[in-house]
Amino acid sequence: MKFSAPLGFTTVVPFLALCATQNTAVKVSSSAIPWVKIDGQLNRISAGSSTNVWGVAANDEIFRYTGDDSNPWVQIPGALTDIGAGADGTVWGVSSIGDIWRYTGDEGFPWVKINGQLNRISVGSSTNIPGALTDIGAGADGTVWGVSSIGDIWRYTGDEGFPWVKINGQLDQISVGSSTSVWGVAPNDEIFRYTGDDSSPWVQIPGALTDTGAGADGTVWGVSSIGEIWRWIGD
Q: Taking a C-beta distance cutoff of 8 angstroms, is the pair 193, 156 a contact?
């Protein structure tokens, strides 16, 4: 069985692989799965750190991870379609009509509305909150990556003129915890992690997800196309 990868990607064996060869099926052992499934159903997820993980469900309900896998989620008042959690505990979100909200933690309604309109949001820390491109990921150390509407991958350099450098590959979604923790999802739900080497920037990770959340401390969570929630337990 041979797996091919697009330019800039390195492929490793997926966690579930079926190959039909003369009525023979080959299946990778489940022991190779580097993810643990967490109870619940979410559409979007963001992880600032192992203690700051937030998600949004299909009906726009907001949930925060409790730290207890046996009872993992507590619902937070409000309604959002995307959410960004920072390493320092900062949380921002956007609603279905593009309104921007910052979490305050106050009793009652714990959000304050911020002027502006966004479709997506990503939070690295309280001072690094960009909103642009089709998808964007901001790390706690100031690292920012983005994905365009055609899947091109860009890393922010801050240089004058055009402050972005294009990185080989094609992704639908990207998440950044730091300069060394960058994860993305390709159009076919394949998962990729940045290698740190722009000449061969991506290695494929076993699994299939539609959204990932990477924290500054190396924490990574994801959700699948059917809303299942997974936490990375690999290296």
A: no
Instruction: Kindly state the DSSP code that residue 97 receives in the 8-state scheme.
Output: T
Q: Is the pLDDT of residue 162 over 90?
A: no
Q: Write out pLDDT tens, residues 182-191.
A: 999 999 999 9
Q: Do the bridges between strand 91-94 and strand 82-85 make them parallel or antiparallel, or are there none, so unpaired?
A: antiparallel
β-strand 164-167 against 220-223: which pairing, if any?
A: unpaired
Residue 161 DSSP symbol: S
Q: Contact, 173 vs 210, CB < 8 A?
A: yes
- Residue 53 and residue 221 in contact, taking contact as beta carbons nearer than 8 Å: yes
Gap between the Cα atoms of 235 and 143, Å rounded: 22
Structural domains of the chain in order of their starting residue, each with its CATH number: 34-232 (2.130.10.10)
* Pairing outcome for strands 202-205 and 9-10: parallel
- Of all residues in the chain, what percent carry a pLDDT higher than 70? 83
Helix, strand, coil shares, percent, the chain, to 5 = 0, 40, 60
Q: Three-class SS of residue 62?
A: strand
**Residues 38-84 pLDDT 10s:** 999 999 999 999 999 999 999 999 999 999 999 999 999 999 999 99
**pTM over the 0.90 mark:** no
Confidence band, pLDDT 50/70/90 cuts, at residue 119: confident
In 3D space, the residue among 117, 135, 114 whose CA is nearest the CA of residue 126 turns out to be 114
